[in-house]
Amino acid sequence: MDILTLIQDEIKEYDQNILLSMTPIPSDNRFNYRRCKNVMEIMVPINGKPTVLAVGFPEFFPKELPKFFDRSNQFNRIPHKEPDGFLCFSNTESMLIDERYPGAVLLSCLEKVIELIEKGLSGANNDEYLVEFEAYWSRQTQTKITYASINTENTQVRELDLWRIPVKSSFALIATETHADATTIVKALFGVSLKEAEKYRCMYLPLKSGTNKTPPKYFSNWDLADMKASLLSNLDPLNKKRFHQIAALKRKSPNTYDYVIGGLPIPNNNWALFGMEIYNPRASLYTNRKNRKIASIILHPFVQAPPEYKTTPLVIKRWNQDYLLNRTGGQSSLKAKHVVVVGVGAIGSEIANGLSKSGVGKLTLIDDDTYTLDNIYRHYLGGKFVFYESEQLGLRNPEKVAAMQVDQTSKYPFTKVEIYAEKFRSVFDQGSIDWKTVDLVICAIGKPNDEMHINQLLHGLPNPPATIYTWVEPLGIGGHALVTLNDNKRGCYQCLFKPDSTDQISNRASFSQPFQDFSRSITGCGSFFTPYSFLDASKTANLALEAGIKVLLGIEKGSPLLSWKGDSSAFEQLGYQLSSRYSFSVEKLHELRYHYIDDDCPICRERGE
Ligand SMILES: [Zn+2]
């Protein structure tokens, strides 16, 4: 049985009054109904009046939803109706489809379409024109993309920097608020150099709130007069004045092109951005006798249209940091944070990368180790950056921090990365870091004695930053992150090493019995390593990272000891012994997360006791 008969039979069973009749019609051309092969003409009530729509069933219906069309253009222009009559009724990503009842799927979609049409006819969803303004804007013909970083919270008319950058046989348009690091950021994000680029005048005109603008009709471009009227008549008086001031400035750059970007306030505190390029072929004639371009006042095309010009609508793609972060669930509140990562080995490198990815504004990386071939299957950087060519010394291994800096700044150009290829102690003693500016320290060295020392040094500061110590256990049994100095000084790394009844010290957080040696050596002295995999390192890094972000956001309080527990079979097969702490359930580990605190700790105990 074909799908249409199937649906018809199913729908007969329902008591419903929105699908009044259905007649299969031939789909002469598969592109006529957006590739739907099966098409029906249906009669539905719109405002109580029987009305004809077309419905197409895509190849994978009901996995794919039916498509509805107003082919005879009965409703003229309503929001969400496209030029071919297609009615865009739903964001299909979030809709769960019960494939067993294709007829019911059709009916529930139809309900939405009827609602969409009725709202459109009554004007109740005219807001949607604002919400969809950018989508409509992009349907003009011969558009160009402009990548723009605009701070829409600033509602002043102002100039942006706009470059026209040659890319192969074409040009890229990139605009930004004036930014000292623009060259670096553009290079990192777009892979193009601003050196070859010509800079042009670009004005940003944010419209006053309450502006109600209907977008251009499909495939019919706004001309210069439309753009000028829409923008200038919707500026508040101060912004209008600013526009005329900027428009009157003498230009040093060529005036062949002028760019205008409008900002339209739309619901939910958002802005629709749309632009226009105005090409003035005669502007380049303003040269002096030696054929150099001279500074000249060419009136802004909004003030006086050039005798000859060509306009092109600009579709704006955003690349400002807040926008990029918010799209991915990143935290724009982290961009003011400064985090110091001590140790950028397998765990520290993952942590540093995670912090950049979360939008942390500044990283300081401290590690005196070099990056070598031995690192690549555990370290975040992999096989990249293992060597560089030195003028005198030939092939050399870079410092880990230097390799990380190159990697991170090229991937996350909004994050500042500062590095010290030294031991923590010397950085600390030289006073290189202003600890008052640091929001968080994460120590991922994995050497207890170094970390005890750092713990002691940081506890000695008048206002020490929150500090997390993190390390991984051998052979996949687990990893830990200890949060300290988070609002109060109780609980520290030293607490973990409280002497036992026989006055011996060991790490009490450990999942392995103390005094076992896990280090392996392949080539003898100097290359000992603890056996753990990149997965163990990643899990541990994630544990520390999550704790760190919660500390930065003020969600995590106090100084918990956090642990993840892994599989112990490889560990036990080799004859190693687990600690009693390993036998605790996840719930118990959580419950006891503050129990490590040692009331007699020489570092963090209450003074005067
Ligand atoms: Zn302590």
TrEMBL record:
Protein name (record): Uncharacterized protein
Q: Which GO terms describe its molecular function?
A: nucleotidyltransferase activity; thiosulfate-cyanide sulfurtransferase activity; ubiquitin-like modifier activating enzyme activity
Q: Which organism was this protein described from?
A: Brevibacillus nitrificans
One GO biological process term is: protein modification by small protein conjugation
The record's annotation in PANTHER family points to:
ADENYLYLTRANSFERASE AND SULFURTRANSFERASE MOCS3, UBIQUITIN-ACTIVATING ENZYME E1
The chain positions of domain THIF-type NAD/FAD binding fold read 328-501
Which domain of life does this protein belong to? Bacteria
Which residues are in the Prokaryotic E2 family B domain?
32-144
**Pfam families for this protein:** Prok-E2_B, ThiF
Q: Which InterPro entries match?
A: Prok-E2_B_dom, ThiF/MoeB/HesA, ThiF_NAD_FAD-bd, Ubiquitin-activating_enz
Any one GO CC term of the record: cytoplasm
